[in-house]
Structures are given as structure tokens and as C-alpha cells.
Queue: 4 jobs
Job 1
Amino acid sequence: MNLFVVICLCIGFLFLLGGTVGIIRMPDFYTRLHPAGKLDTLGLFAMVSGLAVYNLHHFSFGALLLSVKMMLIVFFVFHSIPTATHAIVDAGMRAGLSPLTRKKPSQLQGTGEK
Amino acid sequence: MNTFFLCISLGLCFLMFVSFYRCLMGPTILDRLIGVNAIGTKTVVLLLLIGFLYERVDMFVDIALAYGFLNFVAVIAASRYFHKRKGLYEGSFKETKEIS
């Protein structure tokens, strides 16, 4: 049982790590939103479900309610992060931020097109 | 098991500092918003882990839930505020036209 919790937490941590690296490395505002929105949600789901299972260690009705509440947190986060990301993108589009369509300047010299 | 939770929490704190870097350096206001959103989701998990470390899980579950709500409302309010104020970010937007 403990092994499952440890594996879940490590997987969740890996996803969060990927999300953070994605936020830092991505070149453009819109591309940065992809890892932020998706990976954080999945990382949070893996970690919280691991903790919910750990909470059921010494089984009691209260612990079961607590784990259900944790899964409710996950359920709410699954709804809230995509909506928040959509609001940010909406703000970006309204503000006139142009998505990175051309290649990076460093690659431009090779092709010569603007 | 407790030390494992502690290590994961410290790792999460490190990840939050890295996301905070995006908040500091982000060229546009909305990049900073991404950083705030990322930190918010990590805080929810961190609160749950602290709840397990202190053995008072039922209290910290409520705190984490409340924090999730606040984070969501804050990001929605901030993004609604910024898309009307066109002049808040520096030159990178100059050449783009308003997308009505």
C-alpha cells in the first residue's frame, strides 16, 4: 500500500516538474500555457489521489469522508484550471498578443524569409 | 513515510521558486499570471502534504479547498482586468493590431 502512495507521489512530482520546466523553457506566451494548464492538473491529480489512498491506511468512516473530500478538490481543480487558462488566453487574444507563427530569429537567417 | 512527505514538500517548494522566476522575468503581464496560476496549484498540494506532516489532515483539506477557490477567482479576475487595459505591457505588442 505504501509503495503505491510513493509511486503516485513521485509520478505527480514528475508531472509538476515537467510543467514547471515547460513554463520556463517555452518561447512564447501561448506555448507556455500548454504545460502550465495540462501538466499541473495531472500532477495535482496523481499526488492528491496518492495522499487520498494513504489517508485510507487505517480505515475508518471519517477517513473515507476525508478521502472523498480530497477527490472533490481534484474534481474542482479539474474544472478550474482549464477555465482559468482559457480566461488567460482570452485576455491575451483580446490584448492583441500575436502567436509565435514564424520561426525563431536565429533560424530566420538560414531561410531568409521575414 | 514522514520524511518522504518532507522531501516531496521541499521539492514542491523548489518548483514554486522556479515558477516564481517566470513571475519575475515574464515579458508580459499575462506571463506573470501563468506563474501565479502554477504556484497556486502547487500550493494546494503543498497544503495537503503539510496536513499529513502535522497529522491534522481534516483541517488542512479545508484550507487547501479554500485556497483552490481563491486561486481560481484571482486568476479569472486578473485576466478579466487585463484584457481591457491595452497599454499595460511593453513594446512586444506594438506591431499587432487589436483582435476585436
Job 2
Amino acid sequence: MALDISANPIGQPVDRIDGRLKVTGGAPYAYEHRLERAPAYGVIVPATIAKGRVRAIDAAGAEAAPGVLLVMTHRNAPKQPAFGPPRASARFARARPYLGDDRVRHWGEPVAFVVAETFEAARAAAALVTVEYEAETPALGLERHLKAAYAPETINVGMKTDTSEGDFEAAFAAGPVTVDATYHVAQQHHMALEPHAAIASWDGDEVTVRTSAQNVANTRKALAATLEIPLEKVRIMSPYVGGGFGGKLGMRAEVVLAAFGARALKRPVKVAQTRQQVFSNVGHRPEAIQKVRLSATRDGRLTGVSHEVWMQSSPIEEFAEQTASSTRALYGAPSILTRHRLVNLDMQGGEPVRAPGEAPGLLALESAVDELAHKLGLDPVEMRILNDTQIDPEKKVPFSSRKLVECLREGAARFGWSDRPKAPRERRDGPTLIGYGVAAAIRPNYLGPCAATVRVAEDRTVRVRTDMTDIGTGTYTILAQVAAEELGVPLKAVTVELGDSRFPVSPGSGGSWGAASSASAVLDAARKVKAEMARTDEARVFEATGSVKGMRETQSYKDFSQYCFGAHFAEVAVDEDTGEIRLRRMLGAFAAGRILNAKTARSQMIGGMIWGVSSALFEEAVVDPRFGHVVNGDLGEYHVAAHADVPNVDAFFVDEHDDKANPLGAKGVGELGICGAGAAVANAVFNATGVRVREFPITLDKVLIG
Amino acid sequence: MTPFTYERAIDAAAAARAVAERPDAAFIAGGTNLVDLMKLGVARPKHLVDVSRLKLDTIAESEDGGLFIGAQVKNSALAADARVRGAYPLLSRALLAGASGQLRNAASTGGNLLQRTRCPYFTNTATPCNKRSPGSGCSALGGFNRIHAVLGASDACIATHPSDMAVAMTALDAQVRTVTGDGATREIPMSGLYRDPAQGPEAETVLTHGELITAVRLPPPPPGRQVYRKVRDRASYAFALVSVAAVVDARDGQVLGGRLALGGVAHKPWRVSEAEQTLGAESRPEASFAAAADAALKGAHGYGANDFKIDLAKRTIRRTLADAAGVSS
């Protein structure tokens, strides 16, 4: 059986195939699925102390309230396995008990769960639950607990906690030009538009949970472990995800409590965390202090780079953001020292937040590099090019591809970098000072083990299935593009089905590995189907399962160091009277292997850049050390960039095909855009004002004081 | 949210009566603030009287050459009105600097004046707050008080009034018209609408329970150029750290007089007559602007995270007055 060969769809700027569904309300998000049976509605009651125990709960008022079906507390919650030690190898798959005991480990931890006939009734009843606490003194405040810092066994993704190449201290002592600067990055939150939500329904001893998960397989394992039921009895569906950013990698309270409620009531139960609850129940990017030291020759060659990090963690669950990890590979200095330390505070633990490690780490490192260039009187673009390396200084192997220099040069040309103000306070426009800034981007390229099936029907329509998720990135579309191209069918002949634990297992969306991993598996499946079709003239259904091995089992990830690269260029205006910083324009140049869809990939880069701007200028969750809560825990006061803050943000890709990465030559793009973006803005603020703010976010008061 | 009953009033007097009759009743118009507070458990009215459909949604020219603005005129409609844009650009600009397009489409003129503070300890029922729960203490003292007051505050409460519109109306000498539960009407100057927090922060205005704002009357605009300048942490959808409403009457480089009101710095729009008197009192405009800034911030006191507001306010006043006067600083 032969197929038509149409134009190659891979790489084309194809509109999202699910775009129309999304804008017309046809794509159900977690809270919106309609089941045959009307659901009951669950509302979580959060703890209002940071540490202690629940001495008494008076649920009588809630239980007697109209429409209430169930009030669950630690006294009547099902027995669950203990959470266990703060470290676990497969942390997203482990059991995660809720209402398991009377302990309160952090502000906002669920202490009760109310289910009623309507959402309004459940919320009203939840307000009637009164909790008496026996409060203990919590450890809060990173700086005041620095003495308790410890070195974790490893940092996130199993990376080394500390590394040391060469003799940094000797290099630093020898100078001749050095920078020694300490940066502070604030606690930040994912703030996905769609809050964490779940609908659970039981059929006998089998539970189905429709939720908003980045990784279906892990959510399934975690729920099975928590409920202590076999994996086969759990089905997770997550067809559409309204943003994840790392906050939906692991299962959270809404999934477990919905499952409990639905089992107890023998009807579906739906639960969503409120915006305020999302600030204390799904993890965050931990607050961190970063000390960066650089030494260089007078002509700008780095002789030593050191990056030491102290960050908040939690005694409940350890999370060590790999903040200094990009420093191990970005520049070719003969001595590189990195170190991570954790400080346990009585708060929820940290979690990956878009580009964990790289985003906050590059904010500090790329600011310090700018400080050095300024001290040396060098063009910061040229100084970065001077320190480029084609060999990974840590792993001592070549990069699979590394086009940092091309990104810097092409980006500089397109941005008009040569026209930059050479010295701070050099350029004005009315009452504002104008500044330009640059920063490099680097982000590891990962590949996860993934499987997918491709089925070609008799009418030559194609169906792709994997439990991979589309968290707004465009997965549906790129997988259709890959299948269409390989099978030579029109794009509209391909249907992609995602996010169901009955489908072949993927690594999910996270770590920017989703596109490369799932597209490689689909490619493999499509090739198998094609081969089978070539062997016969029969008109029948063809189906094959394809897969790709993860990077740990792939030789090219041992022989080569795999990263994506980029360069950001930003222009800001700073009001000299008020200190207000406004981005004027920004351009990102990126090298990320073969681009599967020019449109959705560019959108991701721009989205990442915008978050970089936001993290450098706005985002700060303020924890009140008297209470332990995020004071500004809503979108009115936790400021993310508004449209007016991000005019004229553009991105482009330099041509690249990385044949060491995977059969498609593609690399991850989801996190690359935020990496270094904030530092470009910070460096532009310095170029405008001559004020170096090392405490992020750079708010106007810090500029005025400087 | 506590369950509540709801009625739609047929006229202003009936609405006022309906609320006055029940201590647990409240007016609702656009609901852009009240509904949020109800969801958070901060406001718990048992009965809502909807005034949004009362025929109070017109803007009319008054006999004295001013404007008569119905309390139910939406913020977006008020900002877009040609008469407002022409004669009171200060008001139009202030409105457009506030909230978001969607919120302005729903928010009413009367409701805007009565919106509650955005102090995050007020909106969180788990933390002490004298405004929400009298006698429980002020968590903003010693807490995160970046958006809090530096003028007119008391140890009982350091919250700010969040409105931009009210700042412009204060500078424009607006009068607030009301009707009470017993049918009496009165007119309150903007400068007399808000109570000092030292008198008990739980009551923010001089309005009695059941007293409904029916209109805002603007006298003819003062002479001079009007400028509203809002300084905030992001370019849109953020409350003012400091805002300045300025009207400056300047001719041939000479400042003859003007008006000045501040937002984001106190429990009410802050207007200081001594500051206005300096306008035109000095021969050099820059000197009079600096004197006005100092006079406006007289007695200012920071609480830690908001200390910067004092200097920021002075800088913004000087600059805004200069812009209004058409002299570059």
C-alpha cells in the first residue's frame, strides 16, 4: 500500500491543531470534564500556622451546613502510607499522603476537606470548619538560618552537589581582575493560568482521575502508592493542561482528596486549588543567595569562575535547585568551582520551576560576567565570545553542538548592538535613561525514554497515541507534523491522542525533553508502520509501537555534552525621577537543533523571555517570618509581567541540526527562552543607570537608592 | 463565601432603606471588589441590595459649568466621556491608570470611592487586622508594608486607599451626593469623605450604614493644566506606590497657582493646602515645586518596606508639577 508524498510539514510554522478547540471552549481542562454523573464539589481547608499540630477540629458547623456531603480531617481520612524521608529517588512517583496525621508542616497544608452538592455550598461550609492549633516556633527566614546550611547528597536531576575543576582559589587570588558579588533571588511561583484541579470517579475498585498533570505515568504511580492499590486500578487522564512550568510534575492534594471523596461518596468529586492555595501547596522556586566570583586577565580571558548557592529547602521534602550547574559548562575557564547548600525552613519544599537552576543561576552568573566586562572596559558580547569553549569543562567531552558564538553575533547584528550606549548614563530619551544589555543562554538537552503507537486506518487516516501531555507547548501539533511527514499524508489526516495512562508511556512534559522524546518515538513508530506497509499491497489497518531510549542509555549523551544555547539582547528605559524600569524591546537568538514547528517554538522562546523579564523585574513571593505564609499570595500583588511590560519581544533560531541529540536532530526549547533573559534586562538597567542591583527583582526603590 | 440573599432595588431611596433596615446588608454595584472580599471571607453580608440598575448612570452638565456624574456610571464610560476628557483630563487619566479594561467596564463611580484597601493582611482572614477584626492588631506593622501609608496612618492601621479616581476627584474638589435610609440627602466634599484610621480603621468613610452614594458633582475645572502621574511596580494592573494629581496654572514661565493630591500614600487621597499655597509663592517654578513636595510630605513616616515612598513621592511631585507647568525639570 503506498501513500501520497506531500510537502514536508516538519519545521513549518503550522498553527496549533488544537487551537480552535481551545479558543472555542472545546478543549476541556481538568475541572471542566463532563461526566455522566454530576460531581460533588470539594474544597480544601488550609492550615493557618507554619508548624505544630492540630489540637482540635470542630467540623460540626460544616457538617450541618446545607448541601454538605462529607467533611474529612485527619481523624476520618483513610489510612495512607507515611511520606517517608525527605529524599527519594523517584520523588514524583512516591506516595503523598494528605490529612494523614495531626501535624502541620507548613502554612497552607490541608487540614480538612469539605465536599458538598455545589461548589458554593462546599466553600461556605469550609469557612465554618474551626481548627485549634498547638503552634510551635517555626524556622523561617533564609538569612537568619544560614548557619544550618548543609550539603545535599546530590542536587536536582542527580547532578553533583559540588564540583571543582582546577584551583579556583589560587586563580582568584592571582587576579589580576576580579569580581566578587553576592546576588539574591526571590522565591517565585509557577502561576499557571489553570490552577491544580482534579475530578475523580470510581468504577468498582478502579479509579479514574482527570487532572492537570505534566506527567501522567508519575501521577498514576503516586496515586496508586498513596491509595495503596495496584497500578492497573488507576487511570489518569490529562488531555489539556493550562500551563505546568514544573508545578504539575508531581501529584498534589487535589488528586488524592478527590479520590478519597469520590470513593467515600460513590460519586465523582471535583476539586480545584484556589489561586491563594497554589502559593503554598505545589512548590515554588526557592529563595536563594548566590555568591559569584570571577577572575580574568586584563584582556578578558576568564581564569577562574566560582558560583556558590545557599537556598531554602524543607525538612519534609528536599529539593536542591541546580542553580550553579550551568556555570559548569558555559565558559571555558581553567578553574571552575560550584557549590550548593540547603537551609531547611518550615515551608513547603521547592520544586522545579521553568528552567530550574539555569533561570536563577544565570541571573547571577550573567550579571557577574557583565560586571567583569564593565570593569575591563570590554564589549560584553566580545568578552563572552572570547571565553567560548567547544569542550565541556566539567565533562571533558565535546559539545554535540554549540552555537553560542553564532547566537551572540547574529543577535547582536539584528538587534543593533553596535549602536549601544558604551557607558552607563550615556543615553537619554526625555526623562529616561536608556540602556542595552546582553546575556548568554544555556540549557541542558535531555532525552527521556518514550513510547508511542501509530496506526494507519484503511482510509489512510493516522492515529498517534502516547501518554505524553501538551501543556500549552504545541505537542499535539508537532507529533502530527512528524507522523504526517514520515507517512507522507496531509497533516489533517493525523489525529493525535495524548495524556491518557492507557497509552504508551512517555516521560511527560518537563525538563524540555517532551518534544524530542515523544517526536522520536512517533518517528520510530511511523517508520515501522511504513516499513510494514511497503511489504504488502493489502489495504488494511497497520499499527506499530515505536520508542526511543533515554539519554542514560544513549551513547551520544556520554560521548558528547548536550546543551542548547542562546543570547538575549534587551533595551530598557529607566525613569530618572521615579526609578521605573520599562522594557523597550528584546531579542533572543537561539540554537536548539532542528526546529519542529517554527511558530510554536518561537512562541515558547518568547514566553520564556517574558518570564525572564518578569523574574528580573517583578516576581517576588514575600514570606512573612511571623506567620510563614506568602503575604502577596494572589495575582493582584504577586506581580507577573502584564502586556504593557513586554512590548516588542522577538526571537529567532540560528540554523542547526544536532544529529547527536536524537534521530530528528531536534532539541528542547521550552526552558531555553528564560535562561539568561533576566540578566540581559538587569545588565541593561546597569547600562542605563550605572546602578548594579544584585537583589532580584529589581524594583524601582532599589534603583533609586543606588 | 457566606450564603446571602439578594434583592434589586427599584430606586435609590428604596435601596438605602433596604440596607439601613438590616445591619448585615450591603450595597452591591459592579462587585469588582466586594465579590472578591466575599469569596475570601473578609466581607460577609447576609443580604445584598443591587444598585447597579438604578437610573444613576448618566453624566450631565450642571448649571455652574461643572459635571454631575451618576454613581452608577462605569469607570470606563466616565474615562471615555468627551466632556470629562476635555475639561477634566486628570480624571480620565486617573481612571485609565487604574485596574484593567474588564474591571473598569464593571466598576461604578460610587463603588470606586468605597473600594477597600489592598493591604494583604486585611484580605487574609488568617492574619490579625484591626480593619477587618477590630482589636486584633495590625499585621502590616512589622510586616510586609511596601504598599502601605506614609502619611496619616496610625498604629491601628497603616493601610492605603487604592483608588486612582478618588485622587483626581479630590484634586478637582468633587462633592459626593448621598441619600440615607430615611430619605435625607446630603453633599460631602471629597476631603471630608474618609475617616482617619486613628478613629477606628474598621469604618473608612463618614457614610452611615445604608447611606448610598447617588452622584459625584464636579465643579468647573480649575484653571491650568492637569496631569495625573501614577508610579507603580509594573506598567499596568498594579496599584499606585505613589500617584500625583496635579493642576498647575502657569503663564509665561510663571506659576500662578494649582492643586495637588497624592494617592498610594495614605488612607485617603492626600491633599495639603500648604503645599498648594507654595505654588506661585516662589518666583522660580522649580523652587515652588520643591517646596510643594516638602510641604505635601510633611510629617511623613515610613514603616520599613515603604520608607522609599517618601522620597519617591517628593520626586514624583516635583516632576509632575513641572510637567503640568510645562517647564522641564
Job 3
Amino acid sequence: MKHGDFTGLAEDYSLYRPDYSQAVLRGILGITAKPVTKLDVVDVGAVPVYGHEC
Amino acid sequence: MLANAGVHSVTAIEPNDDMREQGMAHRDNRGIVWKKGSGEETGLANGSADLLSMASSFHWVDFDKAIAEFDRVLRPGGCFVALWNPRFIEVNPLLVEIEAHLETLKGSEIKRVSSGRSEFTETLTERLESCGRFSEVVYLESKHFIPTSPDRYIGAWRSVNDLRFSWVAKVFWRSWPTLKTASRVRDY
């Protein structure tokens, strides 16, 4: 494994990393220019936000 | 989390094959489209996103290249979000003890790039404001509490890249049985 290489860490990352703040998520969605249901969202380096249990 | 919020679509860009495959196989995948790409080169079309986030990962990319890429991909009025989830170490003596232990091993041998409480994030608002690509920069912060078992806590440390690849990290990991026992004692 090299510095910055996340190979082999995915399972632990997905299972054990803490969830992000729901209040911050609501804040983010509250300042977007469109209604939530019309948002096309992209996450880069995606496991923390979209693959994690919440 | 955002996929569950009812947005129109979610595309996940992940450069690491292992991480991407794990995400694709996850039971909460909920229609997320996974693609290989990076912060500097997402592979997405011009003006194809309203909200683009990097969660606990923006400190890994080339700032100027990634910001230029996000400017290209975001539609007018779109938002870029850089997000971290730092621990509030000072409130828990065990966390303070573990961090101190890590510091004794660290020296010049463990190069830590993360995390959300670092020089990178301390100056990020100013860097985003001065880069000329954003009309306004908003800073949000919230404290939240996550009950964490010893196993989950140690599992989270196992997912930290810079504590997995150096020989000093092996010393660090040999300490875990002691720390785990200590955490269990304090858990009761």
C-alpha cells in the first residue's frame, strides 16, 4: 500500500467511518439554487457520503 | 445520505477500483451511478451537475486542477461542497491518550495528510474565496454525537490510509490490543 492508496481499506471505510452531520446536510441542501428533487449530484471519492449507512 | 434525501440523481466518481467496487456492491446503493474518475479529471460532461461534493477527500487532490474541473462540470448556480467529519478529541480522555500515543510514534515516519482539523481546512475558506471561481463561500459547522463501540472505533482507524503503510504503523497496530482493552474497560 502506498500513501494515498485506499486499496484494501474500502470495507473498513464503509463499515466503520462515522456518518456525516445530518444538520450540515440539511444546510447544504438549503442553499442550493434548485429544489432538492431536481438536483443532479456528484460526489468525488464517493464511499464516505453515498456508500455509507445512514 | 444525499441519495436518501430525494435528489434527482447521484453520480459517484471514485478513482480507486476497490473503493468503487465496494460502493457499487453496497446494499444502500439506491440507484447511484458509479464511474471511474478523480477530482482533477471526473470524466463528466460540461454543466452536468448542480451539486458536487468531496467528503473527507478534497485534501488529496490538486487544488487548482480540481477546482477548474468542478467549475467546468457544475451548472451556473451550482455548488461545490468540501466536507469533513473531524472528531472532537478534547472531550474524551481516551481519545486524547490515543492521539498522544500516535504522536509518539509519528516523528517523521508517519506522514498524515488528513483530516478536517488541519492547516488545509483552516485556510480553505480564504483559498476558495480568492480562487475567483465562486460567487460566495459559505461555511457550515455542526456538532453531532455518534455512539461508537470499541470495535467500530478501531475499524475506523483501520480505514486510515496513512496508518496502514509505514513500518511505524505496524508498531501502532501492535498497540491496539492494549488500547482495545482500555476502551472496553472505560465503556462499562
Job 4
Amino acid sequence: MTKAGMTQPGLTKTGMIDFRDVNKWFGALNVLRDITLSVEPREVVVVCGPSGSGKSTLIRCINGLETIKDGHLIVDGQRVGDPATNMTQLRTEIGFVFQSFNLYPHKTALENVTLAPIHVRKIPRAEAEQAGRELLAKVGLADKVNAYPAQLSGGQQQRVAIARCLGMRPKIMLFDEPTSALDPEMISEVLDVMVAVAEEGMTMMVVTHEMGFARKVAQRVVFMDAGAIVESGTPDEFFSHPKTDRSRAFLSKILRH
Amino acid sequence: MLENFSFRTIVEYLPLFGQGLVTTVWLSAISFVGALLVGIALCAMNLQRGWLFRAPAKAYIDAVRATPLLAQLYFLYFGLPRLGFVLPELVVGILALSLNSGAYIAEIIRAGILSIPRGQVEASVASGMTYTQRMRLVVLPQAFKVTIPPLLGQAIVLVKDSALLSLISVAELTRAGQLLASDRFMPAEGFLTIAAFYLLLYYGLKALAGLSGRWLGTAGART
């Protein structure tokens, strides 16, 4: 597909997240190569691939934690990187869950959840706290509202982090290896919460190697290698019948045990 | 040797030492507040992206850290009048201590802010906070805790540095010792007594540091 032949973004129906020929370099390293990918509203897309393949960079571009060099990236109808786009405003519509949780250590679980709703969304404190308690209950932490992050296990911290994103009532949730820093016995409690969020119809992009999660809720699995999208398909297609040598090699490594 | 040591003279001079101690305490306190303001301003300049503010802040911090406080004090004391600013010694002294300590405090605060993990900034950016919001709500409250112990260390240094103001005849604690030494030719009595008072101030500030450490420790918010 040539650039000239491409329809103007915004004139056609676009997805919730729309990458068109996106490229990014770190110095001489082409970390994102000609990425074209559209995520529909309510769709759950799992991104996997070997380490250093650009998966995290891909989703970090969506809320502008990384900037793209060329191509178009349209999120919720707004062009990322365009000076006319209010990124601060756009970010309020996008929840981002980090591998290392990044909870605010000086705030309780409830304060972590209500901080942005109160100060960014300008929701009255009482209302935000009520919603925050409900969210913490929803992720199974009703008894931990007043705990500080240091007093919580990794799995509990990550669930608070998810509740913190949901507190902003986002249209999109991005997950950057949300279970990679967790002890094995804590992974399922976090995945259960993510499944619940997906089942409520959230648009999600999830960087993960958790195949059980992908099979359960993802409509699509995208496999990346060396900055490019190599393969994409339904979880069943991808895990059972990988089409490329690179995806077969990758799957044989993560499936061995 | 000790038979020549005159405790009676020390007692006789106690009111003078008392006045000196009080002066040292309040002029150090004012200077420290001034230094905090200078330090915050310098640090804010130093954290800007553009060189327009950063370059002068860095040059100032380097200049202060590279030169002796005594030279800076004399520069202000003898230099300012030549530029047309005739100020009382006390004001010059407080100015010198504030400007000097401010450079060190700027670096202490900067280190505190830079010690906050990048993930904290990313989390607040991702939730749609503006620069001001994330500094006020996320970065500064955490940096504050890291900064308290080294700031108290700097306060101790400032109290000791204030002794130099005796050289521009500010009637502070060291000046009181000098007076006893020169009036009665009793340098041992004079300077040992002020040493004891400085030690007292040191323990006072150290106790404060301990208290703040305990307060920070029980805040329960450390990682």
C-alpha cells in the first residue's frame, strides 16, 4: 500500500486505536516498523512477541509516553502527536497499567484510586471516594482501602493499579506486561480482574504472554518481532496454527514448560 | 594548667554569651529560610529544559561551591558599598549565608526530586495530570521526605558557618568568645565556652533530625 493511495485518516470510519504506517527509531534502531493496526471499540487485542520486539513501545505510543517518528496514530478520533491534540485530555480517556504497578507510595489504596478523578476529572471528593471504594471492592480489595502500597502484595498492588485506571472511567485500557513482575500464585488474581474488565466491553490492548487470558477474552492476537507486526489472527489460529517460522519458534519457547 | 582556667570569668561573661547565642540562633534561622527560598528558586531554574534558566543557575551553583564562604562574605561586605548598597552588617551576613547555603540546598532538593522513580512520573502523566499537578501531588511530597535529613545536615553546616559573621563584627556567639579572649586575654575560656554552645545547638538540630526521621518513618508510606 502506498501512502498516496491511502485514504485520509478521519474521513473513513476509524477504529478506537488506529496505527497507519507508524515508524519509530531509538537512534539508528527501528523499534517500530510500518505498523498498521486498527483496534475496534470493545475489542481486546493481545500483543506478544520476544523481548525487545517493540510491544511495550507500541502501546506506550498510544498515550504519548513515547512519540512516533512518522505515520499516523489516531486514538478516539484524535491524532496523537498533532500539536492541535490535547494529549493531557486524551490521556484521561486511556488507562495504563504498568509492569511495575507504579502506585503512589505516599498514598493509600483509596487515595491512589481517587487522586486523578478528584484533581484531573474534578469529581467531588465524596463522590470520588464512594466510586473508589466500589472499584476496590470490585477488584477484591474492599478491606485494603486504607493500606499503603508497601503493605500490599504484588498482586494486590496491581489490582489497585487497575482500579486506579478504572476510576477515570476510561474508554481504553492498555496493559504493559501486567503480570510479568508477579509471583506465580498472584498472576491469576490479576488476570481474573482483567477478564472482568474485558467482559464489561472495555477496549483493551494487552502486552502479555498469558495464553489462557488471550484465549479467554482476546478477539485477536498480534505477534511482533524486531519492531514489526509479523502475524495477527484469532487466539485459536495463532496458538494452534502459527503461520510464520518466527511465531512458531517463539511459541515453542514459551510453551515448552 | 587548669588552675589558670577562670570559670568565674566565664560566668561573668555569660550574659554576653547568652546574647550571642540568641543572635546566632535567630540569624541562622532567618538565613536558613532565605537559603530555602534561594535553593527552591535555583532548583526550579535548574530543572527547566531550556538553557536560558538552567545555565545561570548552574553557573551560580558552581561559583558558590567553588569559592570560600569567607571570600563571598568579604565580597558582599566590602563590595556592595562600592556598588552603592550600604547595608547593616547583620543584613550582609544573613544575605551571605542565604546565598551560600541556597546553592547547596538547590542541589539537595534537585537530588530529592531526581530520586523519585521515573515510573511515578509516568503513572501521573498517564492519568492525565498536568506538569504542575504531578509535581504538587506526586513528585514533591515524595521528594520532601527524602530531602529532610540532608536539609537538616545543611542547617547544621549553616549554624557553624555563621561563626564567620564575627569577622564583619556581627555580635553573634563567636564574637562573644572573641571579646572575652581580647578583653581579658583568655582565649581558652572564650573559645571553649562558645564550642560548648555550638555543641548544644548541634545536638538540638540533631534531635530535630531524629524526630523528623521518626515522624517520616511512622508515616508508613515508604516503599
